Amino acid sequence: MTQSSQELSLHGSRCDSLISRAYLTCDRHLCNNALRSRKPEARKFAKWVTSEVLPSIRQTGSYGQPAYDPDQVALAHRAALVATAQVYQSVFEAVMQGKDWQLNRYMLRFDVTAEDGTVARVKAVDRNAYVLPLDRFHSAVEDSICVDAQTLTQLASTCTARLGRMAARNAVAAPQQGSLQLR
After folding, report:
1. Which residues constitute the domain of residue 148?
2. What is the pTM of this model?
3. Are 118 and 100 members of one domain?
């Protein structure tokens, strides 16, 4: 029994051990039916279609991965090649020095120079060093970095001294309000 061209067709199917109903639809009406459905899965699908797929089709005429610029791809390959050579050399030197080279960590950065173009720089990170964004430093000290009491005391002392210097600079820079100066 077909309800309409915009609706699902309801068909009964029968097998020896099971009687069930199957809902069939064509691609043309899939989105329409999903957008009207109240099931959580359909709502997620509808949100994805309306927030990602349709805007992409409206902007670019298609949905999918963007086509990459060949110059950008060539630059990425060259940068990866330069980085690979630098990492290779750093690891080679660490192995030749022989001390627990498997535990080494490296930081990679790219510099652009006028004479050499893109240059990869590889630096070994000290084993007792942490590399993290400044805005996550306080939470790392609180939760995840294993720090002994002496180091925490030094950190607290340094922070207190820095706050004191900042307060002193702000007090000098701020105009004196509410005070009367007589001569």
Report:
1. 134-172
2. 0.41
3. yes
